[in-house]
Amino acid sequence: MTYSGEVRVGGPADVHELKDLMITKVAVGPMDNNAYLLRCRATDEQLLIDAANDAETLLGTIGADGIASVVTTHRHADHWQALAEVVAATGARTYAGRHDAGGIPVPTHVPLDDGDTVRVGRVRLTARHLVGHTPGSVVLVYDDPHGHPHVFTGDCLFPGGVGNTRKDPEAFASLIHDVETKIFEPLPDETWVYPGHGNDTTLGAERPHLPEWRARGW
179 exposed, middle or buried (CB, 10 Å; 0-12, 13-18, 19+)? Predict the structure, then answer.
């Protein structure tokens, strides 16, 4: 079946099959958070992005093979409600942005800085540090050697705009700058965007609206 990226809490996961990587998207919790399970097709090693909620669903999605690591995109509580239980069950090492790690109540084994590499099996992901939604939000970029890039944006970029900056002009200016310079400028229109809530999008669908976002200030 064709991947749509449209999932709902209590419903089935959706799977995006790439040549080297399988991406399973599932929605969990009262805030409809997205969690993404990445599986290297060469080694079967797995990585989870955001153990947001509902550990039972996440562990069922992970399966008997477990996960080697879990990345928390930022410190907001709706993105780590199941982290302690998932780590306890799997022994996974934890990653988070260096400037948000202190706000996550599960120890971060590997603090991430801009440009750091996160690996799942033979697949390489690049962390980009975006400031504004939180001080230490990170997104993960997978530059697929067989196709277009894929970016897991947490709450920094959604269809229709950047993440919530709580009507703080400085925070918005920082986030829109980082999104433009670290995501839109280096990556092509075909780049697939996997956000922390809701449906997926592409950079091409969102790029024409960047001036509107700047003008409205959110």
Answer: buried
Burial of 191 (0-12, 13-18, 19+ CB in 10 A): buried
Q: What is the CA radius of gyration of the chain?
A: 16
Considering the entire predicted model, what is its pTM? 0.98
Hey, CA dihedral for 169, 99, 49, 34, is it positive or negative? negative
Please give the single-letter amino acid code of residue 41.
R
Structure tokens at 125: 């992901």
Name, in order, each residue with C-beta under 8 angstroms of 134's C-beta and a sequence gap of 6 or more.
74, 75, 76, 97, 99, 100, 103
Averaged over successive runs of 10 residues, the pLDDT of the chain (218 residues) comes to 94 98 98 98 98 98 98 98 98 98 98 98 98 98 98 98 97 98 98 98 98 97
